Each structure stands twice: as C-alpha cells, then as structure tokens.
Amino acid sequence: MSTEEKYVKSCYTGQEISRRDMLAGVAGAAVATVAGMTIPKAAFAGVERVVKNGRINQSVSRWCYGKLSLDELCAAAAKMGIKSVELLDIPDLSTVKKHGLVCALLNSHSLKDGVSHKENHPECLAKIRESIDAAAEYGFPNVICFSGNRYGMPDEIGIENAVTALKQIVGHAEEKKVTICLEYLNSKVNHKDYMFDHMSWGVDVCKKVGSDRLKVLYDIYHAQIMEGDIIRTIRDYYEYIGHYHTGGNPGRNEIDETQELYYPAIMRAIVETGYKGYVGQEFVPTRDPLTSLAEAVKICDV
C-alpha cells in the first residue's frame, strides 16, 4: 500500500477513504469534499494574519482541505501566520518550501499495516528511511509512523515487534536529525483494531527504543475518545511527545464551543511544558474551511 493510501475515516459518510481520494475532489467545483464546499476566490483574497502571540507553532493537515490546491493552502496558511502544512508526500515538499513554510510531518508507510507486525518491517522501514532522507534534505523535522492494526496480536507482542523495527531505523533518524513520530489513534470510532490506542503503548515503545528521535504523535481528538484526561497526560508524558494534532470531539470537526474539548487550556498546558515543536490542526471543517481554520488558529494562539 502506498503512502498516500493511508486510511482516514470520513466524518460524513462513515466510509474509509484515502487521503488521495479526498484530494482528488479538487476537480469539479460542484462536487462536495471533506472541506465541505468550493472556496470563493474573494474569500481567499481576504485572508489575514491571525497569529498574535506565536507561543504555539501551528501547522495544518493537507488532507482536510481538499478543495484548495496545495499552493492555495500554503498561501492562506502563510497569511494567517501558520508555519507549516503537513502530512505531505515527498513531491509536495518543494511547494511548501517555496511559500517559506515547513512540512512539520511527512507521510511514510501504511496506517493499517504498520510496525507492530514483523512481516511489514521491510516496507515500513524503507518508507520511513525515504521520508527521513527527504525531511533532512529540506530541513523539516518529523516523519510519521504507525503501529498498524492488531489482527489478533497481543499488545505486548506488538510492542516487541515495533521496538525491533524502530531500533533498526532510529540511528538513521539520529544521524539525519529527524524525529520519527508514532501516532496514537482511536480504535473505537475511526480506526477499528488499531493497536496504539492508549498512551501507555506508545510511551512503552519509546522507552524501550531509548532515543530522542522517536516520539509519540499525540492526537488530542483520538486520545479524548479513548482515555480523556488530556492535560494530565500532557503533563505526565510531555517528554515523549514530538507532535500534536487537534480535532473537535465528537465528530472531528471545528475545535470551538460546539464540542467538549477546551483547547485554550490544552494549549496553555502544552506551552507550560516548554514544547517547541508543532501543533497540527487536523479537523474537518463543516463551514467555510478557511474561516474555520482561522478561528482554530486563533483559539490555539494562547
């Protein structure tokens, strides 16, 4: 399975669709997309800077904005004060660089068939290595990694297998000064059977690998579904977290007053840990997408 075919659960249809399929909706202005609507050029032209404080380095996930070209999303992000457009493939990196932005998190291998199963190790490690090399070439910080699904495997065996795989590649990450970020996803709503669905799983892998170049991607939306207790978890495990994702719960939509998480307090907790990495906005807008993105950026600019 190719990098761009990582699966994401659609909030609208309940069907599993790929990031590639989401982005394919760009052709044809009348077609509804994950972003919900066509972006009027006038609205794009009116984008203004939102970031005032800048204590949180903000990023935006490409797959959530399928109606915008990458050039348009980068231009809008730069105007708002967002520093990164993330979850990109290697051919996209020059576009981000052209706009003076970072790709805070590069794609790598399959979400379902990840490092928790030995038979996946050759492909996963090759993809991770390729993305590490590209990130290093462009001066970008992180590459994503997935546990993959259980397929009946006990967690302790999955941890052992993940550690075996990641020990083979983490030295290369250290040499290239790129961090591998192992993503925490929920197995209750969006990613049935995904193995790394509790923080302790990922922290255990990080401890056993024993490198600062392996961290957890702490997705706040997914963590809220599985365990909650977000701020305490951040305070207890911040040293193992290399990247954050946002998203409103329930629904993975806007992070405003329509949902149960209070992001200003969460962002302040992140700042208090001394975190200097990126927070990626990874929610699916239900309204005008650039308006929703600007509001989210303002909420997180504590």
> Which H/E pattern describes the elements?
EEHHEHEHHEHEHEHHEHEH
Radius of gyration: 18 Å
Annotated CATH topology: TIM Barrel
Q: Report the count of strand segments.
A: 9
What overall form do the CA principal axes indicate? Answer: globular
Report the major sheet: 7 strands, parallel
Q: Could you say which structural class the secondary elements and strand pairing correspond to?
A: alpha/beta
Strand order of the largest sheet: 4-3-9-8-7-6-5
Unreliable sequence segments: 1-37
Helix content: 25-40%
When the domains are counted, the total is 1
Known CATH architecture:
Alpha-Beta Barrel
CATH homologous superfamily identity:
Divalent-metal-dependent TIM barrel enzymes
CATH C-level class: Alpha Beta
Per DSSP, the total helix count is 11
Give the tags:
single chain; 302 residues; alpha/beta; TIM Barrel; 7-stranded parallel sheet; two-stranded antiparallel sheet; globular
Secondary structure topology:
Elements: E1 7-9, E2 16-18, H1 19-24, H2 41-45, E3 57-61, H3 70-80, E4 84-86, H4 93-98, H5 121-138, E5 142-145, H6 155-176, E6 179-183, H7 199-209, E7 214-219, H8 220-226, H9 230-237, E8 241-245, H10 263-272, E9 278-281, H11 289-300
Helix pairs in contact: 5-6, 6-7, 9-10
